[in-house]
Every structure is written in C-alpha cells, then in structure tokens.
Amino acid sequence: MEKKLVIPERAAGVLLHISSLPGKYGIGTMGKEARAFADFLHAAGVRYWQVLPLVQTGYGDSPYQSVFGASGNPYLIDIEELFRLGLIHRAEMKALAGKKGVDYGMLYRKKYALLRTAFSRFDRNDPAFCAFVEEGSFHEYALFMALKTAHGGASFDRWKRSYRFREGGALDSFLLRERDEYLFWQFVQFEFFRQWKALKAYINGLGIRVIGDLPLYVAYDSADVWAQPQLFKLTGSRKPRKVAGVPPDYFSATGQLWGNPVYDWAQHKETGYEWWIERMHRAFQMYDVVRIDHFRGLDRYYEIDAGEETAVNGKWHRGPGMALFRAAKEKLGSLPLIAEDLGAMDAGVEKLLRASGFPGMKVLQFAFDGDPNNAYLPQNICKNSVAYTGTHDNDTMVGYLRSLSREELERVSGIVREQLRRRQLAGCGGGVYGVARAIRLLCWQSDAQLAVVPMQDLLQLGSEARMNTPAVSEGNWRFRLEALPSARLQEVLREELMAFGRAGK
C-alpha cells in the first residue's frame, strides 16, 4: 500500500468528546459551545480535534456499544437550534436546564421526550427530509428502533420470531402500522447529521481536522447484527455464540469481557468485505481522520464462549489482515486511519501496522516502567505515530501520578527528569503537577507527527475527570467541562505548541 503520511504536518491535537462540552442542557451538544471550543483550539494553534465516537449509545451509555454503528447520537443534538427552527418552545427546554455532569437516565427520559415534541411540529414533507428518508441509509436503523420501542426496549433476541428473523410480510405490516415511529427515528438522524455537517464545516473552516473513531466491534443488540446476522458468529436462534474481549492485561487481571459478537470473517471475505468497506466509507464522510479502535483485532482477535463470566478462557484466531485494507483501498482510495495499537502487541500486529503504513498510538502514561526500550518513551517514538499523554481509557495524568506510591512516584519522576535532560528541556518543578506538565511537554516535543493531549490533562484535573474505566460498566462517559477554557490556557497552550513546532497559523 502507498505509504503517504496520514498526518502530513507536524501538529497538535486535543481530545474531548462532544458530550464533555459545557452548556445548560444536560450534556455537551453541537451548539454554540462546540463552535466556541473550536475557536479556542484555533487560537491556540491546535489543528486536530479528536472527538471519539459520536454514535447513538445503547445500554451502558458507552459509544462503543451502539444501536447502529453509522448513527449519530440524538443526545448531542442542540436544542437551541430546534428552538430557532420553531420546533420546541423556550419553556419546554427548561426540563433539561441546570443539569451538571451527564445524567443519562434523565436524558433518556427527557431529551427523547423533547425530540418527540420537536418531531410532532416538524414538516414531514420537507424536501430535504424526504430525500434523506428515500436515500435509505437509515432504513434498517429506523425500523430496528421502531421495533425496539414496540417491544418496550427489549433486545431483539426477545422479539416475536417473525421480527427477530426479519420475515418480509411481518416487517411490511409493522412498518405500515408504525410509520410515525419509524419516521421519528429517521428525523433524529436527519437532524443530527444536519447539525453535524454544519459544525464540521465550521471546524474545518478554521483549519482544524476532526479525528473520529471506528470501534472494531458493534453491539449485539444493534441494527447492524439484526440486519446482517450472517456476518457474525451467532447460534441458530440468533444468540451470540462467541463474544469479543481481551485477555488479562494492564487494565484488568481477568481480562475484559466486552460481550460484542465477533465477526465471521470467512463470510466477510466472500462478500469482498463489502460491509466493512461501507462502514469505513461512512466514517470517512463523517470525519477527516478515523482511529480504528482495537486495531490488533484485525490481525488476530480474541474470542470467548458466550456465557463465560470472565475473559480468561478465550482463544486467539486469525483476522483478515491486509486483505481488508487492500479491498478498502481499491474501492475508497486513500485510507486516513490511525491504528489503536495498544495492549498485547506481537510480531503479527506489528507487521500489519508496518504493511498498512497507518500511524500507531504511543501513550506516554505507559512509558515509565524503567525499560529503556519501552516503545512509549519519547526517545523511542517514531515520526509516523500519534503520541498521547493518555486516552479516554486512561486515568488522567494527575490522577495516575496521585495513584502511585511515594517510591513509584519518585521512580517515574526520575525517568521524566532523565527524559527532559536527554531532550534538553528545562525542568517543570516538583510534585504531581510539575511531573504531569513535564510529561505533556515531552509529548509535544516527541518526534511523532501528531501529538494529542486530552482536555483533562491540559487542565491538570484529577481522577474525578476520568472519562472511562475499562472493565467497569457504570459511571463512565459522564465528564463535562464546567466552563469553556480560559484565555490564559489558550495563551499557554499556544506558547507550548510554538516552542515545539506544532502550532497552526
């Protein structure tokens, strides 16, 4: 494959999910705060905004467990824009006002109710909406969600057999009866993507590129699995036969049992990887650059028998490897992908990464074990990489440092001081905050073409601001900024990026 760099310039990025933006209505949205944050990034010289998956979440509220992998999250719709369109009234917006953090239970009850109110006033004969429905990209999703609503939110394996097995006559009759519900779910996707396209155009107009996320797996209870069951390892009754996860690792002593159904890669190969190519195509339409989550699973994947309580007893199997990317490149041309190459690496996935030419991720929080050959040490990070202080799955840098014993913190501090000396950087003071800032500067100074810092690490927040804890099912994806970043932080960030040759114009 062509080895053109995915990130063509030396640049900086900031990681912040849209849901984490401040605002008055229960969750960050694609409204004025998103534009103001983009203005902050532009003024600071940041050229990449990494937003993580923007898909509609299902049970557990994780965007890595979506009801449809190509969907947009209705929670992120800006209700101020719905007010401007005359679809909701100011008094009705008060139901979401004054909420801090992200309360997903409240959003499920109240935001969907508000969106249904907006739909009741929406002109269903709007030409743009009619064209959106007719185009058919969200037909399976809207039908799935309408069926799910009719079954009280139950998983599709508990539906009436004719619906579970997609019998044509039963689905046609259902669609005639429940046309309004079907069109409601079309409406929320229409409005999400209308707002997202406008926001992305604004961001791109500032010279900022958006990095999105393509989860390797999809949720079992999803339109993806319901509509294409032959592409997954399921039983005859459409239950999962094998599920995904990873063996014991840094994050969990018993591994991570994700529960997503694993792919039947033989079936995908027979179709020329058509489903995956369409999935990539839609991701490239939505984002400028796409991070493939759990990239190593495309070389070898770990599967566990459905019903196991932990991921300890799983087995490794061969994935599609370069055959998938060659097929995608033939249909789509360039593939602006970043590989999440964290976790248990072996020669196979390293070979796949080299063959693909995609930049891998280097997370500095994993760098300080004392091994001079540690791949995440700044001195060992190559140009075709994306360096991070941490990701959404890590504790914040301050939280991580605070979690260390006194002896561990002294060891890490010593390694950081040595890295500063080696790279001819001035010290940043002692204590947790000094070490955390030093690691951020090492990230900026690394040879990686792109360096990304989570907003929590720019603000030097503690563990209370952590976004996600792998293998823990509750309390995640709730972090929000209390206010937009200050002018002082913007000034400091721009000075840092200019010093290390990463600032945009």
Automatic annotation (TrEMBL):
GO biological process: carbohydrate metabolic process
Domain of life: Bacteria
Entries under InterPro entries matching the protein: GH, Glyco_hydro_77
Matching Pfam families: Glyco_hydro_77
GO MF entry, a single one: 4-alpha-glucanotransferase activity
Keywords: Carbohydrate metabolism, Glycosyltransferase, Transferase
Catalytic reaction(s) noted: Transfers a segment of a (1->4)-alpha-D-glucan to a new position in an acceptor, which may be glucose or a (1->4)-alpha-D-glucan
EC numbers: 2.4.1.25
First-level EC class: transferase
Family in the record: Belongs to the disproportionating enzyme family.
Name this protein carries in UniProt: 4-alpha-glucanotransferase
Native source species: Candidatus Borkfalkia faecavium
